[in-house]
Each structure stands twice: as structure tokens, then as C-alpha cells.
């Protein structure tokens, strides 16, 4: 979900729209214009249904945006700047520059979102009730927005981390237990249980009632489960590697191999040094990285005449980091580039190698040493 474009800045906060949002916009408008509005207000022109569908969809997305602004304005007031707000298919995310450092701040920032949605629901619902008669396209559109804001507040209050409800739950556990990491573990555990319950319920609905809407529950459950796991790992990385640079973790005793070496020679290298990959270096030029996986592509009987240069992963496709890169960011970078290794280079010179395995070992060590 990396393909986003920047729309504008509101109060200094950049607003980004993810490509998936366009699909949601499209589906929402179609459903409203073709099915929902014709079903409750009869006898209007096609254009009128489409106008109502599109305007209502825009109001729904404006509501999502205001929900995120609710979080953002309180965060800014609490001294945490907002990097950006991104709208995507399921809603929005306000990305904070840093996480709250105490449970009260987290509680306030989180509560602001659902409270904003509730407020919009009451205002739009109330105005509609007092001033507009039911059964007209304008009042039905506003009524729809009011209800959606109510659902949004309720949905976000489900205590499945990282939904707002899960964050509120974490801040409460954090407040009483005085330990953020433990509170997160508890919140993620509850979130996982709820996610699996949602997936289970979705499957029951699909198989026993034959209703494909169950798929939606399965999908939502899976997304929330994934999001919970990934925010927990990110927190572990941050805690473990806080303040550390890549240079402190990388291995500097470098066994390299020449691009002219044959795969037979490379095989010898693997057996002798027992690393999973070698930087490919000729003179002072680094050409890339060659791993055991690269070797698998070539049949055994061609190893004698095949050179490393043919199978290596070139430098431009390798994750290359500077020694002063924050170690906490590396795991995320490796995950997003789907690689387990990074070459560490400074001014064009190879200075080290860092693998995910090295980092995982450090995390384990850190956990054992700290828990006593
Ligand atoms: Zn929220």
C-alpha cells in the first residue's frame, strides 16, 4: 500500500490519498447511486441519483478526514507533530512523528477520533431530525452520513489493537501496569483473539448461511490481526535498537567474492565461511550480493563454467545503507524490500554487512538480558 499521492496541506499537515481509496470512492458512489438511493427515494433522474451518490461519498470521506483531524489536533496540542494523514480503502491514518510517552496522552489523542465521529453523527443527525423531512434525497443523504459516523465511532471503539479501542485499552493497561511494552502485548493479544473471532464468524456466515458478506469479516479480521502483529514488532525494534546505529550491529570482517569466480568456487566459499551470502567485490568496486538462493537458479552441472557475475543480485537491487542509519528502521526497510540482508556502504566503499538473522539474534539477546 505504498502508492499514495499528495492532495494538499491542511493546517500544515500533508494529506495523502492512497490508490486504494479511489476504488473505495468508486464502489461507494456506485452502490449509493445505483442501489441505495433509488431504493428509498423513488422517481428521480439518473443524474440526481449520481449527484447524490457522489456528494454523499465525499461527505463520508470528509467525515473520515475530520476523525483523523480529531486525533491530529489533540496530538499537536500534546506536543506530538503529525507527519501526514493518509486516506485509504478502510479509512484513514494520522501518522504521528513519535508515539505518546505516557498513557494519559495516548488516551486523549485516541479518544479524540471516535468522539469527533460521534459529534458529527449527533450534529448531522440532529439537524436532519429537526429541519429536514424524511424521504427526500438531501435528508436521506445527510441521514446516511449521520449513521455512518455513528458506525465509525462504534467500529473504532472495538478493543482490537491498533484500532482506537485497542489503543484506549492499551493506555488503560499501561496506566495501571506502568509498562508500555507489556500493555502493548496484552492489547495485541486481545486484538488477535477478536480478529480470529471475526474471521471465524465470517467463515460460519459463508459456509452455513451462504452469505458472501462473511468474506468481509474474514478480511477485516485478517487485516487487523496483521496490523496488530506488525505494530508490536515495530515497537520491539524501537525498544531494542533505540539510539543504535547500523555500524554497531553490522559485521565488519568481510569475506567477499570476485564476480569472476565460478559457482564451484562460490560453493567452496559457502562451505568454508558458513555465511548465507557474500558481497561481490572486484578491486574497490562493489557489484552486489550473492546468496545461496541465487545459486539454486543454476543446475549443478553448470557450476564449473558459470560465473558469479551471472547470478548476483546487482547493487541497485540490493538494500544499501549508511553506517549511521538508525538500526530501528532497518527491519522495516528489509521487510518493505522483502530482503534479509543489507550492504553497508560509505562514500562508495563497502564497510559492512547486516542480516536479519543478526538483528533477530540481537533482539533475543536483549530480551533475555533485560528480563533478569
Ligand atoms: Zn481513529
Topology readout:
Elements: E1 4-10, E2 13-18, H1 19-40, H2 46-77, E3 82-88, E4 91-96, H3 103-131, H4 137-156, H5 164-177, H6 180-209, H7 214-240, H8 263-273, E5 277-282, E6 285-291, H9 292-296, H10 308-311, E7 313-314, E8 319-321, H11 327-337, E9 341-346, E10 349-355, H12 356-371
Parallel strand pairs: 2-3, 8-9
Antiparallel strand pairs: 1-2, 3-4, 5-6, 6-7, 9-10
Helix pairs in contact: 1-2, 2-3, 2-4, 3-4, 3-5, 5-6, 6-7, 7-11
The structure holds zinc ion.
Annotation keywords:
single chain; 372 residues; alpha+beta; CBS-domain; 3 domains; 4-stranded mixed beta sheet; 3-stranded antiparallel beta sheet; 12 helices; 59% helix; 15% strand; binds zinc ion
Amino acid at each position: 500500500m505504498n502508492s499514495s499521492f499528495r492532495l494538499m496541506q491542511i493546517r500544515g499537515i500533508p494529506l495523502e490519498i492512497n490508490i486504494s481509496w479511489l476504488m473505495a470512492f468508486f464502489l461507494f458512489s456506485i452502490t449509493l447511486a445505483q442501489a441505495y438511493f433509488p431504493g428509498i427515494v423513488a422517481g428521480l433522474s439518473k443524474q440526481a441519483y449520481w449527484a447524490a451518490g457522489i456528494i454523499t461519498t465525499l461527505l463520508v470521506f470528509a467525515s473520515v478526514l475530520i476523525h483523523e483531524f480529531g486525533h491530529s489536533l489533540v496530538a499537536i496540542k500534546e506536543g506530538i507533530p503529525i507527519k501526514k494523514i493518509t486516506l485509504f480503502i478502510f479509512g484513514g491514518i494520522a501518522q504521528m512523528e513519535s508515539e505518546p510517552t505516557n498513557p494519559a496522552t495516548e488516551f486523549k489523542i485516541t479518544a479524540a477520533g471516535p468522539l469527533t465521529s460521534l459529534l458529527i453523527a449527533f450534529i448531522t443527525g440532529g439537524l436532519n431530525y429537526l429541519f429536514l423531512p424524511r424521504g427526500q434525497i438531501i435528508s436521506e443523504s445527510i441521514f446516511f452520513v449521520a449513521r455512518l459516523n455513528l458506525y465509525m465511532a462504534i467500529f473504532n471503539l472495538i478493543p482490537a489493537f491498533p484500532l482506537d479501542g485497542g489503543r484506549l485499552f492499551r493506555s488503560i493497561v499501561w496506566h495501571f501496569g506502568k509498562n508500555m511494552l507489556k500493555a502493548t502485548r496484552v492489547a495485541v493479544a486481545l486484538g488477535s483473539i477478536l480478529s480470529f473471532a471475526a474471521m471465524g464468524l465470517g467463515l460460519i456466515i459463508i459456509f452455513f448461511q451462504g452469505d458472501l458478506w462473511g468474506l468481509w469479516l474474514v478480511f477485516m479480521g485478517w487485516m487487523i490481526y496483521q496490523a496488530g502483529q506488525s505494530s508490536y514488532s515495530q515497537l520491539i525494534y524501537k525498544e531494542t535498537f533505540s539510539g543504535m546505529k547500523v555500524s554497531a550491529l553490522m559485521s565488519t570482517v568481510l569475506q567477499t567474492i570476485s564476480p569472476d569466480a565460478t559457482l564451484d568456487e562460490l560453493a567452496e566459499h559457502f562451505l568454508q565461511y558458513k555465511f548465507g551470502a557474500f558481497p561481490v567485490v572486484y578491486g574497490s568496486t562493489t557489484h552486489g550480493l550473492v546468496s545461496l538462493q541465487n545459486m539454486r537458479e543454476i543446475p549443478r552441472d553448470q557450476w564449473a563454467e558459470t560465473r558469479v557475475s551471472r547470478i548476483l543480485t546487482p547493487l541497485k537491487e540490493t538494500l544499501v545503507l549508511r553506517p549511521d542509519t538508525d538500526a530501528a528502521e532497518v527491519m522495516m526497510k528489509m521487510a518493505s524490500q522483502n530482503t534479509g540482508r543489507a550492504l553497508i556502504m560509505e562514500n562508495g566503499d563497502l564497510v559492512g554487512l547486516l542480516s536479519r538473522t543478526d538483528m533477530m539474534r540481537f533482539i533475543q539477546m536483549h530480551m533475555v538480558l533485560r528480563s533478569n
